[in-house]
Amino acid sequence: MKNEPLRILTAEGALRGAIDDGIFVFKGIPYAAPPTGPLRWRAPRPATPWQEVRDATQWGNASWQNREYCLLAGGGDPGPLSEDCLYLNVWSPEIQPSRPLPVMVWIHGGGFTIGAGALSPYNGKPLAARGVVVVTLNYRLGHLGFFAHPALDAESPRGEAINNFALLDQIAALQWVQRNIAAFGGDRRNVTIFGESSGGRSVLSLFASPLAAGLFHKGIVQSAYSLPDKKRSEALASGVATAHHLGLENATAEELRALPADSFWSLPPHLGNGPVAIAGDRVLPKPVVEVFAAARQHRYPLMIGYNSDEASVLEFFGVDPVATITDLRARRPLLLKMIRSLYDEHNDRRLGRKVARDMAFGTMTWLAVQAQHRRGVPGWRYYFDYVSENSRDLCPDGSWHGNEIPYVMDTLSAENPQQANRPFTDNDRAFARRVSEYWLRFAHDATEFSHQLQGEIPWPAWRPGEDITLRFGVKGEAAIRPETRFMRLRLRLLRLLVRAMVRL
């Protein structure tokens, strides 16, 4: 009888999982058929049911990607790589709870080119131990996840083309959750999607996609950038150029699908996808920024925020924040004077980092909470400014892009080779407990009728008058406090300028 709870019956077949410190863990569960061969660049098909009990104690394959790049910047080793990558993982504290548990579905970031749901910072065990069911997933990345080409368009009826295969994978995973999560103790009527960077953009995209309606109930967006989605016309031209680069003139769909999967991530930079989805297909008919600007997103509660040194990721991609200030001095000196006064900052390097951060990330949070208010559903805005005690000399400008993840997911105790020389402290772990409690409260309690989230400090939903932002950390130190009209004038101004000045 001891091992009986490890066997779960899903709609597709029985699974055998494991127990990790009292938490039930099921890894490598197929949520759709392998998108290989003739199924490459098609909507995910249902997984083939199985008859025997399927082992669910090993991670599933991650999508094709640059492993070294993921080790350097994506959070660790993504594990085995394959085009056969549509797998998810589930952590549950109780298979048969007295009441179904809230479900939190994590969508990993990595610029839509790297990452996996199995990376150690995304381990679902700590949050599950505090009363939620956690799901992480893999989805198609790079050109396998986002691709347009006239030969593929010809396979669809006019106006029905699909280019955002990665978003369809995420939708298929949410459909799996609706079918199966009750068997793991989860409440399919209380599903929170959350993600960071391109995972945050995924959450916004699902808020904007008509195909995702009804599959989740609220979302948390961490450090989503304000870049415009790629136009379908540009994606089609890029697809033709990519095929040409790979030796295919006037390529047929069959020839494209015969290309080796690993040929796409070694393409030159000008043929890269960029860290955004493609606007104009059936999955994402309108660009995300346009949908939120018109307040036409799904009517679900939303939490959104960003970190104090997001310029760290811009630097990683070769964007020099100081160049923005130099350019303004040469071309728009009066505007530079206005910006200096708003930031009360006269050092070009520091000012450049702050302006780049707020343009590339802050304006998205401002747009989103305004859209939520106009839509008549609550939105909460946060700002993460905590730096781990052993890294404060390394991060003089604040919290880097992605640094909030182990605090949100309470995974500071997880093994992470990147932190070997600067281990987390007990004080860091105590702060992670405080931060993650707000994510859990949102998953448990937030509804379209909520006015505030409970916590050590009650967190009111955003309204134009009060314009409250909750700060997690102040100048690197541990503190949680609400700020009124935080960066309000800056973000209003930068929202007007963002399209002209933010480039990756």
TrEMBL record:
The keyword Cell membrane does not apply. It is an enzyme of class 3 (hydrolase). Its EC number is 3.1.1.-. PROSITE patterns: CARBOXYLESTERASE_B_1, CARBOXYLESTERASE_B_2. It comes from the Bacteria. Residues 8-473 form the Carboxylesterase type B domain. Belongs to the type-B carboxylesterase/lipase family. This is Carboxylic ester hydrolase.
